[in-house]
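Progress report, Aim 2. The chain analyzed during this reporting quarter is listed below.
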Amino acid sequence: MTEAAEDVQPAGNSGAADGRRRQSIQAAVTAMLACQSENGALVASPDFAQYQYCWLRDSSFAAYALDRCGQHEASERYHRWAAAAIAGIGDRLDTVTQRRLAGQAVDRAMLPPTRFGLDGSAVADDWPNFQIDGYGTWLWALLEHLSMTGHGALPAGLRESVARAAQFVAAFALDPCYDVWEENPDAVHTSTLACIYGGLRAAADMLADPGLSERAREIQMHVRTGALAAGRFQKSNISREVDASMLWLATPFGLVDGSDPQFVAAVEQIAAQLDLDGGIRRYPSDTFYGGGAWPVLTAWLGWHHAATGDYGAARRRLAWVAGRIDADGRLGEQFGGERRLPEMYRAWVDRWGHPARDLLWSHAMHAVLSTELGTSDGAPSSDGPTSLQRQR
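Predicted structure tokens for the chain:
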């Protein structure tokens, strides 16, 4: 495991930052680094058996959080690990991409995994593995890393994996797959398309590939004008349900502007339907461990509020997240499900044990929201929007 963080330098207004915020960010960074192996892999949870793997999605957001907190070396080690893991399944990626582009049938057993062993190996088990969002998120997070560290070009050692991941994402972008919650494999999901858009824009920048930019525009138009919008953005092409992961459309991927009326309508429904004691749940019919509120999503809504100038609302969401950190510095996956649907909470406890009490992704989004706010009086950090939002 990596040693605890030293000399954390949060992105933003460091001279005026108050001690409590710095301590909070320091604690989040220390928790994230405790999840990092020497080879750069980031385990999803150190205390939950089902999550003893590295998800490209969760870990890429954590790498972004580490970059925002000045921990660029740790982020770089993760990105090099991810590139190596993708290189390890290079032949598989090439085969399925070529078959998809040729209009040939693709064996789902050949599709790349959403999670990897910490040694970078592809895990062969019955987990819902065909998810595209992680590959798009990795591409986006890598460009953010290069931008925040002042790299002028994509390092040569990463180029092949970036190209492979981008071509795979472009080819399968509109195919049904599992969503971010590893459910609903027969649908095309709004938040997945947001990740794909962000990843394709990033890859187009890193590879100087106009074809990827054009594919990103096609995805953007599909989301903005198709059935996924229809008055307000919805969970997927087969579900009108609201889902908190739709926040990704604006922050951080910039597929739509935060003031877009259809997006504003979706955010209003997220706040109205998914609030649980100040935290944000995944979607209305959620029953996983009783369907509690997730620090990840609560921080994400706070990030959206901060990005659109509502710093008071952002601070309230941050306070909810911070209030769920236990005496040992752990921040779990979700809270309140045992009260909301006690019978379903007990059913999941019987199946898998208690929900994750320490989650990499929770710490990551706590750090992102903390750095976004910048100071305790709600002034924005100097970090500003993501590189893709600046380009949009």
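The beta strands are 54-55, 115-116, 275-276, 279-280. The chain has 15 helices and four strands. These observations will guide the mutagenesis work planned for the next reporting period.
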